[in-house]
Amino acid sequence: MSKFRQSLADKVLVFDGAMGTSIQRLNLNSDDFGGKDGCNEYLVLSKPKAIKSIHADFLSAGCDVIETNTFGGTYIVLDDYGLSDKVYEINLNAAQLARQVANDFSTMAHPRYVAGSMGPGTRLPSLGHISYTEIYQAYKDQAAGLMDGAVDVLLVETVQDPLQAKAALNAVFHTLQEKRIDIPVMASVTMETTGTMLLGTDMLGALTTLEPYPLEVVGLNCGTGPKAMGEHLHTLSAHSPFPISVIPNAGLPHNIDGEMVYDLTPPQLAHDLSHFIDSMGVNVVGGCCGTTPDHLKSVVEKAARMNP
C-alpha cells in the first residue's frame, strides 16, 4: 500500500488552498511571468521561488497535501500563450518543485504529499469545442509530466463535463499502464448554483460516470461555498463506493471595485468542513478559490481532532 493510501485510511487528509488567489496576492509583474502574463503555470519556469513559497505557506499551516501549479497544464490552455511545446516541461517542473517542498516538510510522524492537479481546460467535448481524441491526448501529455515528476496522487478536478472526465481518466489510467506504475487517482466534480454540473448532470449522474474507474476518492470542489454542497454530499454519502472529498471555495465571490472577494472566514470554513467530516463521512477536505493559509490552518486544527 502506498503511503498516501495508508494516510487516507488513518486520518482526515487536508489539501491546500487556492493557488490562483495566492499568486494574485504576490502582485507579480510581467517580467515575473516571463512575458506570458496571466499564465500561472509558466511561473514554475519563470519564477519558481514564488510557487515554492506558496507551497511552503500551506505546508506551514499544517496541510497534508499540496497541489501542483498545473491546473491549466494541458496544451489546450497553454497554446493560448504560445506554450504548447512546453507541456511536459511545465508539468514535470511543477511536480518536482512541489516534491522538493513537500520533502522539506515531511517527517515520519507527518508525511506530506503532492497531488498532480489536472483541471478541465477551456473546451468541453460534449459541446463540440474539442474532439474526444484531442482532449484525451492533451491529458496524456500532462499526466506523463506529472508522473515523471513523482507526484503521490493524480487529481482530475473541477470536472464540468462527463465526457471530459472520461477522457481525462482514460488518459491517466492508460499512461499508468504504459509506465507500469501505480499512483492513486482522485476525481472531483464541480456543481453550479443550479444544483447540477455545467452541462446539467446531477450528482448521481456524475457518480455513475466515475464509478467504473478504480478511483481512491471522489468528491466536490470549487463552484460554490460549502453550504451549497450539503445536498450533493448527502447523495455521495448514501451512494458512493469511494471515500469522499470536499474542497470548496471560501464562499461565493463578490465583485468589489473590480476585485473578486470571498467572504467566508477561516473559522466558518473550518466549522462547515468539520460538520461534513462528522455527519457525512468525508475523508478529504481542503480549500479552493479564495482560500488562504489562514483558512487551511483553521481547517487543520479542526480536522486533527477528527477521525475518518
Fold and architecture overview:
This protein has 308 residues and is α/β, with parallel strands linked by helices. The chain is built from 12 helices and 10 strands. Strands 1-10-7-6-5-4-3-2 form an 8-stranded parallel beta sheet.
Condensed summary:
The protein is an alpha/beta fold and about 300 residues long.
SSE blueprint:
Elements (H helix, E strand, L loop, with lengths): L2 H8 L2 E2 L4 H7 L17 H4 L1 H13 L4 E3 L7 H4 L8 H19 L7 E6 L13 H17 L4 E7 L2 H18 L5 E5 L13 H8 L6 E5 L8 H10 L4 E4 L5 E4 L2 E4 L3 H15 L1 E4 L7 H11 L5
Parallel strand pairs: 1-10, 2-3, 3-4, 4-5, 5-6, 6-7, 7-10
Antiparallel strand pairs: 8-9
Helix pairs in contact: 4-6, 6-7, 7-8, 11-12
